[in-house]
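Notes from the 1:1 (GR / supervisor)

We went over the backlog. Supervisor wanted to see one worked example end to end before approving the batch request, so GR pasted a single chain during the call. The sequence is below; no edits were made to it. Supervisor asked that the structure be written out right there so they could see what the output format looks like.
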Amino acid sequence: MFNIHEKFRQIILDEYNQKYFREIFQTLNEEYKNFKIFPSKDQVFNSFKYKDFDEIKVVILGQDPYHGENQAHGLSFSVLKNSSIPSSLKNIFKELKTDININIPNHGNLSSWANQGVLLLNSVLTVRKSCANSHKSIGWSRFTDKVISLLSCERENLVFILWGNFAIKKENLIDKNKHLIIKSSHPSGLSAHRGFFSSKPFSKTNEYLKSNSIEEINWEIV
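Structure output shown during the call:
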């Protein structure tokens, strides 16, 4: 918790005063004892460690962490540098190349985006090894919905990028009069051809930021 920026840390502490949030941690304590859980305990809140609440420019919403070894590290769609790149992330990189001509990188760690104020937020923050969506019902969505709602309410001119039906369902949490919502099909191999490719999320994001006198994101992966 000590690495989390002040306002995000306060949001987490405020939620910890509620029964549901304490129950999440009670469940997690048992899960970490009995199963292999991703990400590691120290990276569960990793998405809140790069920039604080008032420094966020863009939110890219994922569903839950990758459930393979040596992948998840607390940032949606991102994997550790020495991991193979999942198909969804490969397709994100393909669209990055098509949209703004950024070369496809040799790793999938998106920390360079997070360092610029891109909140890479999964709706569910933990998962059992090899069991996708295994923690979808332990309460995480209530917490992350609160984060999205607070960002929508208290900030202006954010870009919310919603890929796939799961993320698009969160649209009702966002004030469309204050923020830009970019949505398309999911970048997974099964659905990327249904509207993700050629959706131009990266150029649209920067055009919006620039039009509101906000520094654009350098989308190059470093």
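Supervisor's comment: The helical segments are 6-16, 19-34, 87-100, 111-114, 140-154, 165-168, 201-211.
Batch request approved.
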